[in-house]
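New to this. Explain the following:
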Amino acid sequence: MTTTDTAEPTLTIDELAARAGVTVRTVRFYGTRGLLPPPVLGPRRVGHYGREHLARLALIEELQHQGMTLAAIERYLKRLPDDLSPHDLALHRAVVASWAPEAVERVTREELGRRAGRPLTDEEVDRLGAMDVVVPDGDAYRVDVGLLRLGVELLDVPFSPETVLAARTALLEHSRAAARDLSRLLRDAVAEREAPEVRSLSAHMHPLVVQALLTTFQRSLREELREWLDKEAGE
């Protein structure tokens, strides 16, 4: 595992398992199957894990929730680039969660922290609420499960809540426009087919389309940032 400023290996295997809500045995099993990168070895060869491992465990959990077998999960993870950051992995998890109908659950404050992968302060819960990820509901919270991990990752981004909300609005606007155009193209392509075949094709194409959109967006954003940074460096 390559360490970065955003993914320093600071967790022991017991701490990682507790944060992810799995057993130590599960972490070790995933490691032997290549689903998790090896830990960084510290003094006395004690393994240390970072946010990348936590994000990968969350992605694996979501893939299992969607009904994928272990072999299918292995194939999915092998197709991902090796240098994905925890934020990138959180985006992939959000995409995987979008394959299923919207999943909103009512959870306690304690369960909210477990689902988030870390304890949350009152201020952080308020910020998640501003992102429409968490909604207070009496003595509990209604949580958009598919967006929770992504929202938690955004808590560590040094932007104001106003900037995050503006970015969310822009993403929703453009993603809905892309969804309308793609839906129109797909409807035209299957207009002459029988309804059962159309439903089967739709179920098959949905994850492929959203993964293609994510990959295209990541590349476009990387190019835009590179051009901006090159321009700043030249001035």
